[in-house]
Amino acid sequence: MPPTSLADRWPTAPVHTGEAEVSIRVVGPRQAILVIDGMESSYHDLDDPAHLEFEYMQQVDALVTTVLGEGTAIRALHLGGAGCSLATAWDATRPGSCQLAVEWDGELARLAREWFPLPRSPRLRIRHGDARAALDSFPPGRWDVIVRDAFVQAQVPPHLSDRSAAGAARRALTEDGLYAVNLADAPPLAEAREEARVLLDSFPHVVLIVDPAVARGRRYGNVVLGASARPIDDAALARRVRRLPLPARVLAGADLARFARAA
Q: Where are the alpha helices (DSSP H) in 95-215?
């Protein structure tokens, strides 16, 4: 069994990083959730690094598996690091991967390495800085996957969700690469519709994954979009996300275009 020292170091009171209030919510003997400004951000199971607890991360993983295959090593850029639980899971399930997380809050990045068993460099590097500036700094074709999961007070920063950011992401991806974005929205899903429209203007192939209850406007929740220069098998993706613990709906093609036109 892995050592207990990490769990022993989990704080019992909130910690102020200078940018946010972060805390650990212990949900099991060796399982915990990183909470940032009251929002659940990352889940870690010290006994199972491959475990993804949050539905939207399961959906991003299903999207990457559909586009790039299961278990293949990837070069992944994470715009927004927090507790790096998705990067940790991919390090376990995709041996040989090289990943970089860009996190604005440098103290949060330091605490994440202290509190959780994150992969070491070069398997996972964490850079302190602005995600948009980092995105512009990479040469064309640098990444197989770019995951945008950055929030400021529950909102995606505008400079990470506009057409310029989408264009920068496409340039930084390989021809077969995938841009996966996570956002949180409430009825009538105005942000998700606008983001879908932006990505449809920047990429030839776009899909959207959403909890049916969120799609029907019954509650606030996460929406995941995937964009690529290569075709995305939306039927295979739909089958994969229907097998998740919380089945989701996939929009693509004409259905997604209609959804976006309602922005």
A: 106-115, 131-137, 163-172, 190-202, 212-215
Question: Any idea which residue has 């929009």 for tokens?
Answer: 251
Helix %, strand %, coil % of the chain (to 5):
35, 30, 35
Whole-angstrom distance, CA of residue 141 vs CA of residue 172 = 5
Closest CA to 131 of 112, 150, 153: 150
Following DSSP, what letter does each residue of 35-104 receive, concatenated? EETTEEEEEEETT-TT---SHHHHHHHHHHHHHH-SS---EEEEE--TT-HHHHHHHHHSTT-EEEEEES
Q: What residue spans define the domains of the chain?
A: 50-261
78, 102 Cβ separation under 8 angstroms: yes
> Coil, strand, or helix at residue 225?
strand
DSSP, collapsed to helix, strand or coil, labels residue 199 as: helix
Rounded average pLDDT over 178-183: 97
* Residue 4, pLDDT score: 52
What residues contact residue 35 under an 8 Å CB cut-off, 6+ apart?
22, 23, 24, 25, 41
Q: Which CATH superfamily is domain 50-261 in?
A: Vaccinia Virus protein VP39 (3.40.50.150)
pLDDT digits (tens, 9 = 90+) for 85-122: 999 999 999 999 999 999 999 999 999 999 999 999 99
Tokens of 145: 């996957």
DSSP 8-state symbol, 184: E
**Burial (Cβ within 10 Å: 0-12, 13-18, ≥19) of residue 91:** buried
The pLDDT tens digits for 236-259 are 999 999 999 999 999 999 999 999
Q: Indicate the pairing of strand 124-128 with strand 75-79.
A: unpaired
pLDDT at position 19 over 60? yes
